[in-house]
Amino acid sequence: MNPYTIFSDIVAGLAPTSRVYEDEDVLAFMDIRPVTPGHVLVIPKTPARSLAELDPALGGKLFQVGQRVASALRESEVGCDGVNFFLADGVTAGQEVFHVHLHVIPRTPGDGFGLRARPTSPARADLDYLAGSISGALGRIANR
Ligand code: 5GP
């Protein structure tokens, strides 16, 4: 499948971008439609459409750069009190650009950002059942 998205043009310097950080593997830049002021996206320079396609070492680097950006947001004039990481993997999860990206979202009281969710209270047996299923899948993935 064609890995091209607008983020390929951003990496190549072909689209206007407000860059925050860059190294040989990773680029961080301002989201063009920030949900709060200072909203940054961290992406691998090599496109991967999904987490499953992303080199795990590169995934680790995305998180490391995200951590540093989070610290910088707190020290910068953005002046946030907190930070959320958000990553949408798949259409159902809200992914719109199919080039993996970590949202680093600065938070201040009353900024209006939030995730809507309805937490449930499953029985321990249900938690154990799903834990076993996920654990089994992890074992199969590790052996591939
Ligand atoms: P997703 O919903 O896929 O997790 O988020 C995609 C993000 O990319 C959105 O927050 C959107 O504002 C941002 N975005 C989409 N196109 C561009 C662009 O051309 N430039 C920048 N800087 N951000 C973009």
Explain the overall architecture:
By secondary structure, the protein is α+β, with helices and mostly antiparallel strands. Helices cover 32% and strands 17% of the residues. The chain has three helices and five strands, in the order αβββαββα. It has helices spanning 6-12, 56-75, 124-142; strands at 19-22, 26-30, 40-44, 82-86, 102-107. A five-stranded antiparallel β-sheet has the order 1-2-3-5-4, with helices on one face. A hairpin with a 3-residue loop joins strand 1 (19-22) and strand 2. The longest helix has 20 residues, at 56-75. The chain starts with 5 loop residues before the first helix and ends with a helix. The model has no long low-confidence stretch (mean pLDDT 97). Residues 6, 15, 17, 29-33, 41, 88, 94-97 line the site of guanosine-5'-monophosphate.
Summarize the main sheet. Answer: 5 strands, antiparallel
What average pLDDT do the residues reach? Answer: 97
Helix content: 25-40%
Distance between the termini: 22 Å
Stretches with pLDDT under 50, minimum 5 residues: none
Name the beta content range.
15-25%
Bound molecules: guanosine-5'-monophosphate
The ordered string of helix (H) and strand (E) elements is: HEEEHEEH
> What general form does the structure show?
globular
Tally of alpha and pi helices: 3
Q: How are the strands of the biggest sheet laid out side by side? A: 1-2-3-5-4
Total beta strands: 5
The helix/strand class is alpha+beta
* C-alpha-based Rg, rounded: 17 Å
